[in-house]
Fold this protein.
Amino acid sequence: MMSLSGQFLKEPGGAFLLPTHHPTPHPLPSPHHRVDTMWMKNPVHCSPAPPIWNRHFEPRLPLDLERSIFETTALSHPSTIPNLMLIAWRVKSWIEPQLYRMVSSTHPRSAQLPVAPLDILSRDLAHKCPSVFRGVKHLFLYTAKDTSKVDAVLAACPSITDLFLYVPIRGSLPMLASMPSLRRLVIQPRTLLAFDPDHPIFCSVTHLELLEISTSAEAEDVCTKLAMMPKLTHLALNSIEIYHALIPSLEAFDHLRCMIMLSSEERREMEVDEIPAPLTEDDRFLWIGQTHADSYEDWLRSAHTGETYWAVADAFIAARRAGKIDRSCYSICDEDRSWRI
């Protein structure tokens, strides 16, 4: 058989093909219909050439590049994920995990951000591929009527990097041991005290925020646990008691690069003057007054944009060390950016 240029078209395997360019267009065959006239057997080799329709429908870009494009688009414009998933099965397999990137037990307040409700994720565990749930990176657990759902979710999501945990989880501690990527953790002090000294969480968390503290004795116990966290570089507290307990051993915590006291901006005058000198003289310390204290909104903004009070504190401390800010300044408002000039 001759091509338009007068030459045979031959595959390396020995099969002769019809011309790839035909003088009159023909409709593409169905992928489910075998068209034997699309290839001719060689007397020696009998392996068929790939159907022409495959060549038309295969992606034109390298798969790794195509995947990167879709994943970047989904991450930048998460509201488009459901529509992007309809393009092709391979695209669906790439970006469906991003539908579960942020999961919350609190009802989502923004339709523009794909925050998966905890109940939906719990339901989907039974009939979706386990690899989908490796896409869960940020988990916000404030309330949960059924603690068994919490256990199931924690067990199914080993790739979590950012966890806000306010619900009781004493029975879930083993699940947290299977999260090697966990870096940012927000918990209550009594939850931290429930971990055994050899729990893997102590070897992975770098950013820790502790919520309420009840007694000075509890504060001392927390300090003992903090000493077991060699990778901890950032510590945020909502109460000054733990810092009081830390003062005698501040030098031993040389791995800490940032120590934050989170409070309400309305309490600035009341609290700032009460901070003991060893802290105010430590260039790692910063008091941050929050104008709108909302744990969920803080978590949502952090998960979606990366804008966190950690980043603000790091930038402020770096500027102060560089001499751009008076070294005696150790308190700021979370909405104040004048110091960046």
Remarks:
- Confidence is low (pLDDT under 50) at residues 1-54.
